[in-house]
Each structure stands twice: as structure tokens, then as C-alpha cells.
Amino acid sequence: MALLEIKNLTVAFDTSVGLFKAVDGIDVSVEAREVLAIVGESGSGKSVAMLAVMGLLPRTATVTADKMEFEGLDLLTMTAQEKRRIIGKDIAMIFQEPVASLNPCFTVGFQIEEVLERHMGLRGRAARDRAIELLALVGIKDGADRLGAYPHQMSGGQCQRVMIAMAIACNPKLLIADEPTTALDVTIQKQILDLLVRLQAETGMGLIMITHDMGVVAETADRVIVQYKGHKMEEADVLSLFENPKSNYTRALLSALPENAVGDRLPTVSDFVFEPAPGV
């Protein structure tokens, strides 16, 4: 049984000109100990699909699916109370823009310890010790001193590590990482990616990596879903995707990599007509 299984997911938003489908009938599944990359350009519906799983979309969104199950539990029919027991504990998410995602009014220690208190029942010294342990796990060695820091007093890379510490605090079975290296310099990007892959390997959790970076896909993924304008264009294991892409859109993404430039020009999306791969 898949850890997460989604069939025919559609997410539509009520706008002034009618319903806009940000996600249009996609299927997603991920197993424990697997790294699934969901790749596509900005606006392809990658983040929206995963926010639907987390139940974090605004009320203007209409979410429908034939199936949305986590370990056999129906996420669509769960009550809000039942879902709160899972979200943040068994399913966790690292959001884009860590500085914006952390609350600027509270110390990072308070924010990590709040997760531990809500989902693990830890308080006081036990929560503090676990928070320091988590910070060390994500590469912040002076954790005891950093607990009292506010997000604006830390670098972008450090804030991203704090976000990861919060996400893994309860040993989730599934971790969703939404563009986890956005706005970080190249050296920090590699450190964050290495950290996520190491944590995934050590804990055996499923990892969904949302990205538009084909280099990240090549480095981290076991399997890849390619999305374009809310549609799934292709799904394949990472080696097959790079060696023998089936959809024009995947070929467009790969041809736009700098190493594939012809002369001084890279192809643009307007050079291609996009159709899903056969059977998708």
C-alpha cells in the first residue's frame, strides 16, 4: 500500500471571471523510503496540489478527488480534528521562503517547542532538550544559544534549517519539501539538499520534493512527475526521464539546461507544442 495515494485530484479557485483550475485531474503516489520529485515551471500547480493534501488552501478553493488517502486513511472525509492529529506529525511540509514562513514575533525555540508540545506532549526541559537536538541534527551546532533568536536574527540558510527541524520534529512518515532551496546561494543549496536526502535515508520517510530545477531532480529523486498548467505531462523513474523523455514538455525542460545550449541560444517554451506522454 502506498504511503500517499491520490487519484484524479482537481483544485479550482473561484475568481471574478469564474472557476480557474490550478490542478486538473492528476494522480500522485509515493512509497515509504522513496523520493518523488514533482517538477514544472512556476504556476504548474505543484505547490497547490500538495497544499490540498495538507488542507491549507483558502476557502475559495474547491478540492475534489476520486481518492486521497494517507496510509489507507481518507483525507477527504476526515474531520478537522482527525486531520490535526496527522498534519504536522505524520505528514509535514517545508514551505517556500523560510524567513516569511517563520513567525517573526516568536523565537525559533518557541516555534520548535510548540510543535513538540502539540504533537508529542513534550514541555519544559524535555521540549528544550529535544529542540536543541533537532537543531544539531540539521546542522546548527550552537542550538542552545540559537533557541532565543528571532528569525530576522538568522540567515536564510539557518532559517531553512529551523524549518526543517520543525518539520522533522515528530519523525513524520511523509515530508513534503516545497522549493526548499529557493533564494539560497549555491553552497547552502547543496547543504540543504544533502541534509534532506540524508534524513530521508536515515528515517525511511517518504519525501516529495517540489522543484523547477532539473539538477535537483537528477541529484535527489527516485521517481519524477512532470506538471504543466495543472496537468501531469509525464511520470517516470529518474533515469528513464533523463535518458528517454516521453513528453514534449519534458524534452523542453531538459533542452533548456545550460549544458544543452546550441550556439548562444537556449530553446524557449514557445518552441514546443505540449501534450502529455502516451498513457498519462
UniProtKB/TrEMBL annotation:
Belongs to the ABC transporter superfamily. Pfam families: ABC_tran. Residues 4-254 form the ABC transporter domain. This is ABC transporter ATP-binding protein. One of its GO terms (molecular function) is ATP binding. The keyword Nucleotide-binding applies. The lineage of its organism: Bacteria, Pseudomonadati, Pseudomonadota, Alphaproteobacteria, Hyphomicrobiales. SUPFAM superfamilies: P-loop containing nucleoside triphosphate hydrolases. It is a peripheral membrane protein. Keywords: ATP-binding, Cell membrane, Membrane, Nucleotide-binding, Transport. The keyword Repressor does not apply. PANTHER family: DIPEPTIDE TRANSPORT ATP-BINDING PROTEIN DPPD, OLIGOPEPTIDE TRANSPORT ATP-BINDING PROTEIN APPD. It is found in: Cell inner membrane. Its main location: membrane.
